[in-house]
Amino acid sequence: MTATAVFSTSITSTIINKGVLSYEGSKIFIQKLIPTTVGLILYHRTDIDRSNFEQRNCNGLKFITFKRVVSNKVLKEICRWSMGVLDAFKKEYLKELHFMFVDVHDSFKILESFKFHFEYGNRNISHEKVSKCSLKTAVSELFKSITNINVEPLKDGMFIPYMCITYCDNVPLNYRAPHFNTDTEQDELANRLASNCKKFIRLGQTSTGFHTIKCQCCVPGWNPNSETVENSSIQEVHTSNQTELGTNEIVDSSISLFQTDLRVNNCSTPKKNTVIDVSDDDMEIESELNNIQQDSCETVIDITDVYDGKIDCVCLLKKKFFNIDLVECSYCCSLQHLPCLGYLFVESLEKKYICYRCKNEKLNISYRTLCRFRLLTAHTFFNGTFPDEVCDLIKPNIKNGFVRILKLNKVIQYVIDKYIVDDNNMDVFIEKVFPENLNIRSIKDLGIVGTNTKFL
């Protein structure tokens, strides 16, 4: 069986539109933008296997990025690293991401480097009014800048991709992004970036009003009529870390599975070369990826302990799911899944929320099934993958009905051995499942193809 990895990469019109409306919508937009941009860079700056890429179209905004399913070994690695990057961003620990290509014959030689700088705004109030149109324009300009880098692409087999991240000051001392190292020799990687990449060229800036990403690149031989900035931030961050945080490294680099030695200078013993142990696991990438989502949910405190006994939702599922918001009842302080209440974003909910128990509402089976259906749909939408962690807790007949409806609406398709989400159709489907009319009490009332499916 061919090992594959699944990317959640697509920027859609709904993602862009929601990105300027709320903090959570903005966060989801950025989580989609990061891997999409990395995919665009890989396509235009390397000649890596083209069968793993495809063109997307977001209301006239055309771009090329990863396919939903990739089989190339390099891209599967980058899929792993991207999950770690997104975990750090979701927790608001990510300050900078450096995506670089290192010479396969000389690990001290950085061929090209792309830098993403992240800024976080106020959760409740946008620091500036950003229109949907201006956000789409900013994304378009960023993608165009990357596409217009007119230097010969790097040849496959002549480079090793690498990621290096720096953290914000609020990062816990014991936090490490999944699939990233915190070994002391990684400090040398930051120093190497500072010495080899002297001048970065601005590619674009994307702001939702809640989050901002500034993108720059260092590509030798390319010097368009564009603003250049000196690369001092990495060195400053590194120095600040040594003086303020002591032994806690804020510079992490990706853990590679490629079968090669990557040699770097050890900071404490400059004359001695050390080897970062690199393994090439034979395990199927799917089994590894199955754990990534769970890994990215974990915090310093066990997530089960945090919510134990507090979740009392109409869906009867007492679990905190990945990328699904919980809301607290103003009276009893119990927690409910936001999608089960008919909302995708917490900003749409009334400020003083009261749960169904405190309202003494009597709920029938049809409404409970509707809530579970919405939870399944929201999980699929926000994570870009089939909602296995929810399906594992519900009856098989409800799961089968959910799958049937998604198939009929062309939201998912079965590829190799897993369900793959079609982002464009998901974009349309999500609007039908979460209409403005909150008086809907059953799945049939949604008017979606296939809702006559017998769930119970």
UniProtKB/TrEMBL annotation:
<dbReference type="InterPro" id="IPR036570">
    <property type="entry name" value="HORMA_dom_sf"/>
</dbReference>
<dbReference type="InterPro" id="IPR011011">
    <property type="entry name" value="Znf_FYVE_PHD"/>
</dbReference>
<dbReference type="InterPro" id="IPR013083">
    <property type="entry name" value="Znf_RING/FYVE/PHD"/>
</dbReference>
<keyword id="KW-0158">Chromosome</keyword>
<keyword id="KW-0469">Meiosis</keyword>
<dbReference type="Pfam" id="PF02301">
    <property type="entry name" value="HORMA"/>
</dbReference>
<protein>
    <recommendedName>
        <fullName>HORMA domain-containing protein</fullName>
    </recommendedName>
</protein>
<keyword id="KW-0539">Nucleus</keyword>
<dbReference type="GO" id="GO:0005694">
    <property type="term" value="C:chromosome"/>
</dbReference>
<dbReference type="InterPro" id="IPR051294">
    <property type="entry name" value="HORMA_MeioticProgression"/>
</dbReference>
<feature type="domain" description="HORMA">
    <location>
        <begin position="24"/>
        <end position="217"/>
    </location>
</feature>
<dbReference type="GO" id="GO:0005634">
    <property type="term" value="C:nucleus"/>
</dbReference>
<dbReference type="GO" id="GO:0051321">
    <property type="term" value="P:meiotic cell cycle"/>
</dbReference>
<dbReference type="InterPro" id="IPR003511">
    <property type="entry name" value="HORMA_dom"/>
</dbReference>
